[in-house]
Amino acid sequence: MNQLKSAACTGGELLALRYDHTVPKARYVAQNNGKASRCYSIGRIYRRDNPQATRARYREFYQADFDIVGEYPPMAADAEVLKVGDFIIKISHRKLLDAMLTYCGVPANLFHPICSAIDKLDKESWETVRAEMIEQKGLPAEVADRIEPFTKMKGDMRTMIKELKARDWASCSAEANKAADVALKDMELLSDLLEAFGIKLKLFSLNLSLARGLDYYTGLIYEAVLDPTAGSAHGNMGSIAAGGRYDKMVGQFSSKTVPCVGVSVGVERVFAILEREALKQAEELGANVRESKTQVLIVSPGRQNLLQERCKLADQLLGAGFLVEAFTEKKMGFMDQIKYADVEGIPVVVVMGEKEIQKGVVKIRDQWRKKDDLDKEIEVPRTQLVEHLQKIRADNGAWNAQFTKPSEAF
C-alpha cells in the first residue's frame, strides 16, 4: 500500500480521466491555427456515474465523435452532422433556452444549474426536478412553475417554430427577444437544409426539455434516440448519440474564435441495441445468433492432420474473398469438426482428406441444407472449388446472415 501511495504521489501532478473528446479536440484545433476540417475520433472516456448495464451506462466506455471545424454557411455543418440515420432526434437551441429562462424570470447566474435540472426530465418526473430547482438551486417556486409549460412543449419542428414565434418575447426583455429571434431563425434554416438533404423532418422533435447539462454549447443541441414505435427489444436505452454547437471552446485555448459543431455516439449502447435486436430476431426464427463470421471451414477426416494442405487451400479461398477457418483450437474428430461448424453457424464445410488430395477433388458440405438433401454434400474438382462456393454464396443468404440455421434445417 505504501508503494502504491508513493507511486501515486510521484511528481505531485493532478491528473484527470478524459470526460469526452470535445475539449481535447478543441485544444488540438487551437494548437493548429483553427484549420477547417472534418474530424473523426474514437476512444475510451470516463464518467463518475452509477453503472446501469441494462442501459449500457458505464463509468468507462467507448465514444465515437464526428465534428466539423471552421467557417461554413449558416446551419450547413449542423445539418450535415445531423444526417445520422433513422433515429428520433430531440433538438433544441441554447439561445432559445436562455430566452425561455429569461422569460420565466430565472436570474442569469442560475441559467446553468437550472438547465442541468431540466435536462433530467427524460429520467425524472417534473415534481422531482421542480423540487431540485427550488430546494437545491434556490429558484423561487413561482418561477419554477412558469418553466413547466415550456418543458412540455415538444413536437414537429415547423409547428413548434410557428408556435414559439407567436410568443411575445419582447414583453420580457430585449435580450430574450433577440436570443429567441436568433434561435428560431437558425431552426427555420436548419429545417430547410435538412429537407434539402432528403431527411424527413418527422424524425426531428423540437423539445424544450432538452437542455444538455454541458455549458460549452452555444447554439443548436440535440440527442438521438431510437424510434419508440420500432419495437421494445432495445428497452429504455436512452440517447445513443448527442451533441451540438460549441463555438467558443477553441477560443479558450487561443486568441482565435473557431466555429465547431459535432456529435458523439455511445458505442456500447449501439452494440447493446444490435445484440438485443439480433436475439429478438433469432428467437422469432427459432435460431441462435452467430458468433462467428466464418463462411468456410476446412476440415480433414481421419488421423491425418494435413495442416500444410489446409493452409494452402485456406490461402486460395482467402484470396478469392471468403472468410475461412483452416483449423480449430484443438484436435477434433471429423464429426466434432462438423458439429463445431453447426454450433458456430458456419454455412459451408470443405472436406479434404488424403483420398481427395490424390483425386484432386474436395467435398463441399452445405450446412444449411437438411440432412436428407441429396446435394447437401457434393464432390467437385479442386480447380472448380471457388466457382462452386461463389454459386452457393449467391444462392444462400446464410453467408451474410447473423443467425445459425433454423432448427428445422438440422
Automatic annotation (TrEMBL):
Protein name per its UniProtKB record: histidine--tRNA ligase
Pfam families: HGTP_anticodon, tRNA-synt_His
Enzyme class: ligase
Cross-referenced CDD domains: HisRS-like_core
Reactions listed under catalytic activity: tRNA(His) + L-histidine + ATP = L-histidyl-tRNA(His) + AMP + diphosphate + H(+)
Ranges in a coiled coil: none
Organism: Coccomyxa viridis
UniProt xrefs under PROSITE patterns: AA_TRNA_LIGASE_II
